[in-house]
Write a structure and sequence with these properties.
By secondary structure, the protein is of the alpha/beta class. Helix content is 42%, strand content 18%.
């Protein structure tokens, strides 16, 4: 995996570069930071590239004790230096210029004359990197397009959209086009996303590469040996355990997954849902609204490193989503994790 990423980052676009910096915008405490940022960065570092991770974080994450504790946990065991850059509060985004913050970080690290790679997760990070490249043209920008921001913003909203939503969609689409047009390389998670980027977002076909979401199977080896112990600790020894691992985001269709579980339970009354999520309160509400017996659900918010052992306790997994361009271009990392855990997957088509 690491060699594939290093080669795809991207041929001549990064030849001769001295350092790779993963640039992340306000996702450091998100549920996918470990799987989609620090884990790939670690692989690339082990291939011999000097790697740092720079994360724009809301200023409150520097101050609030709960956020500081979460950041301490995030940094544990990464093996790659993580630098946080202050981002203004959401209500006062005008408070300071984030481009100047990034430019100052480049100067502070003595990188103004070095050929470095800014590997940007998302269009916002890529947009800032492109503005920095205008000042320091030796910098190379890789745009990691993990989703279609403009389509996610209007998902589940039928046309005609309200005026403000229409403006938001257009702004995000222009942001995506700027990133695709300007980046030295564009990494897409699926062939469908690559086609979309070339046909709708003006990406240069010669700069587009496809790297599907994936996981390290070695993380799941221990889980197979402790399956019975984990099931016993959860009181699930004699249950048919149905796993769901994910958030309550609209594109992950949590209600549909709960509905599929309800249908499974109708066929097999001993079924039990094991839900691993950063949003347990939201799932409690949805389960209650759906009339599900809460005794048939176990909702856990677990550290990233513990996900394999809990998935290993299940018998089957759910990956059910709605038909949409967002999901048609997706490559969910949870599918790789389910497969690495040895689970059969109930999965909707069109992903």
């Amino acid at each position: 995996m690491a060699r594939h990423i290093a080669l795809c980052m991207v041929g001549d676009a990064v030849k001769g570069s001295r350092k790779v910096i993963y640039l992340v915008y306000r996702e450091g405490l998100g549920s996918v930071f470990r799987s989609q940022v620090t884990e790939p960065a670690g692989f690339v570092a082990r291939e011999g590239w000097p790697v740092n991770i720079w994360v724009f974080a809301a200023v409150g994450e520097f101050i609030r004790p709960a956020c500081r504790r979460r950041w301490s946990k995030v940094r544990e065991g990464i093996g790659v230096p993580v630098v946080r850059l202050p981002s203004p509060p959401s209500r006062w985004r005008w408070a300071w210029n984030e481009n100047r913050v990034l430019s100052a970080a480049v100067r502070r690290e003595g990188l103004t004359t070095q050929r470095i790679v800014l590997h940007c997760r998302g269009a916002f990070a890529a947009g800032m990197a492109l503005r920095i490249r205008a000042r320091y043209p030796q910098i190379r920008v890789v745009f990691q397009m993990s989703g279609l921001l403009h389509e996610e913003a209007v998902m589940d909203t039928p046309r005609p959209w309200p005026g403000e939503l229409e403006k938001q969609h257009d702004l995000l689409r222009r942001t995506m086009i700027t990133a695709c047009r300007g980046a030295d390389a564009v990494i897409c998670v699926s062939r469908a996303m690559a086609r979309y980027a070339m046909e709708h977002l003006e990406a240069d076909p010669d700069r587009v590469r496809v790297i599907p979401c994936c996981t390290d199977p070695a993380r799941f080896r221990l889980a197979h040996g402790i399956r019975d112990r984990i099931r016993a600790s959860l009181g699930l020894q004699h249950k048919f355990v149905v796993a769901y691992c994910g958030s309550a985001a609209v594109w992950e269709a949590p209600e549909r997954n709960l509905d599929v579980f309800r249908q499974i339970r109708a066929l097999e009354p001993g079924s039990h849902a094991l839900i691993l999520t950063p949003s347990p309160a939201a799932f409690h509400r949805m389960a209650r609204d759906a009339g599900l017996d809460e005794a048939a659900l176990t909702l856990l918010q677990v550290p990233y490193n513990d996900v394999p052992m809990y998935l290993g306790a299940a018998d089957i997994a759910l990956l059910v989503r709605k038909r949409s361009i967002v999901n048609a271009t997706a490559s969910p990392v949870k599918l790789a994790e389910y497969m690495a855990a040895g689970l059969p997957v109930v999965m909707s088509d069109g992903i």
